[in-house]
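hey so i finally got around to running the thing on that chain from the lab meeting. sorry it took forever, my laptop kept dying and i had to restart like 3 times. anyway pasting the input first so we r on the same page abt which one it is
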Amino acid sequence: MLHSLKGVPDGEVLKTLDLRSDWFLKEYKMAANNFSPSQTVAVLSLLKEYDLRSKGVNNDNTSTDEEALMKEMFWRMLHG
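ok and heres what got predicted. didnt touch it at all, straight out
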């Protein structure tokens, strides 16, 4: 959502994102500067996929080993 709020005053962004502190907004803005909207959507999609896989849903690999899934997820985030 932050990507779509460029140019909006910080006070309004805090309310829209339901943030309690300017500190969190600074962190969000730093992340938004490092990732495009499409990269953000891709990472959120991967997080959802691996959350489900860790619970055994749609897991092509029969293993739900957390460490292996985390390594695979991070590799896909960095190289995908």
